[in-house]
Design goal:
This protein is mainly alpha-helical. The chain contains 8 helices and 2 strands. It has a two-stranded antiparallel sheet.
């Protein structure tokens, strides 16, 4: 995948997470996110069979090519599911910090990995991992103390580098990162 597509995906990734946090600060967004997730799953199934004008264009512009035929919208659906889970499982402060870590840490580590040598597993570079840990910790420290979110970012973003499988399939990082980050923050608080 080209850097241009990765940059577009990173921006969308960040904007979705930012929107979820900002709306959640004003109102409880759990049920609307759940309905959005169900609606997205239905659109994904339909998109496998036929073109839906705006949805097909969005998928072709932002989805990873390998998922267009098998699971259209996988990235955004798992991102919404990960945010929904942490909002349901943890207090708002912990959930917002975990969402900040996935919003910044995940796409940034992918972007940086494409520009530096010394790649780790899953096309990540050590420099990308370190930068994503630091910057996501800074953002998450708006909600929880820096030392706590720094430890959570280290564990969550390192866990993403490891290939954790559930059966034969790897666990999607958009679910893994916020759940691991939220759990670490919860345990440290």
């Amino acid at each position: 995948m080209t850097i241009k597509i990765e940059v577009k995906r990173a921006i969308i990734h960040f904007l979705i997470c930012l929107t979820i946090v900002l709306v959640s600060m004003e109102t409880r967004i759990v049920w609307p996110l759940f309905y959005l997730l169900i609606f997205g799953l239905i659109l994904s199934v339909i998109s496998k069979k036929c073109r839906i004008p705006l949805i097909s264009w969005l998928l072709e512009s932002f989805e990873k090519p390998q998922y267009l035929k098998t699971f259209p919208g996988k990235g955004v659906l798992f991102l919404v599911a990960g945010c929904l889970l942490v909002l349901k499982l943890f207090s708002n402060e912990i959930a917002f910090a975990a969402i900040a870590i996935v919003a910044i840490g995940d796409p940034l580590s992918h972007l940086i990995a494409g520009n530096f040598e010394g790649k780790l597993l899953k096309r990540k570079s050590l420099s990308g991992l370190l930068l994503s840990i630091i910057l996501s910790s800074v953002a998450a420290s708006y909600f929880v103390a820096f030392a706590i979110v720094f430890a959570a970012a280290i564990v969550a973003l390192t866990a993403e580098v490891l290939v954790i499988k559930l059966g034969e399939d790897p666990v999607d990082d958009n679910i893994l990162i916020p759940l691991v980050a939220g759990t670490i923050i919860y345990l440290l608080i």
